[in-house]
Amino acid sequence: MAELPPVLLVEDSPKDLELTLAALEKCQLANDIVVARDGEEALDYLYARGRYAGRDGSDPTVVLLDLKLPKIDGLEVLQQVKGDDDLKHIPVVMLTSSREEQDLVRSYALGVNAFVVKPVEFSEFFKAIQDLGVFWAILNEAPRRFRRP
Q1: Which terminus of the chain has a lower count of CB atoms within 10 Å, N or C?
Q2: Per-residue pLDDT tens over the stretch 21-46
């Protein structure tokens, strides 16, 4: 059986990271979860550079992307991913605490696949992450990139 592509989780908040990982674990996903703590690290993973230079070539099944990130913010990561012919097929879900309409509008203008505002209440947050994990890692059929030799 072929190994499933990973889920790329881009989150800088230790608390939100811990909750998100716990919720995804409860989904019993077979996918590995790769964690990037800032936008630069996320792009390094996606482009297989820096500390990820030797990783296998499979793209993530989905990128769960926080909006407010250090080094390179989520909107810039989204813009680079959706503007790159080799990466734009990867589903990107903005997972953020921002309720600012401009963030929502800009995210969709850049090509985000979904925009989810993190619920404040723990049980609602947990359920939202579980639903995301089930949909994007299990139910959604995403196209795969064919790499040239």
Answers
A1: C
A2: 888 887 777 788 999 999 999 999 99
Cα separation, 90 vs 83, in Å, equals 11
Tell me the CATH number at 12: 3.40.50.2300
Q: Kindly report the pTM of this predicted structure.
A: 0.85
* Identity of residue 2: A
**Strand locations in 15-79 (E):** 33-36, 62-65
Q: Dihedral sign, CA of 9, 88, 142, 3?
A: negative
Q: Is position 27 within any domain?
A: yes
In a domain, 148, yes or no: no
Dist CA 82 CA 123 (whole Å) = 32
What does the pLDDT read at residue 103?
93
**How many folded domains does the chain comprise?**
1
- Condensed to tens digits (0 to 9), the pLDDT of residues 106-148 reads 999 999 988 888 766 767 777 777 776 666 555 556 555 544 3
**Closest-CA residue to 21 (of 140, 125, 139):** 125
Domain that holds residue 114: 7-139
Rounded Cα distance, 28 and 38, in Å: 25
> Would you mind telling me the total number of residues written for the chain in this entry?
149
Helix (H, G, I), strand (E, B) or coil at 24: helix
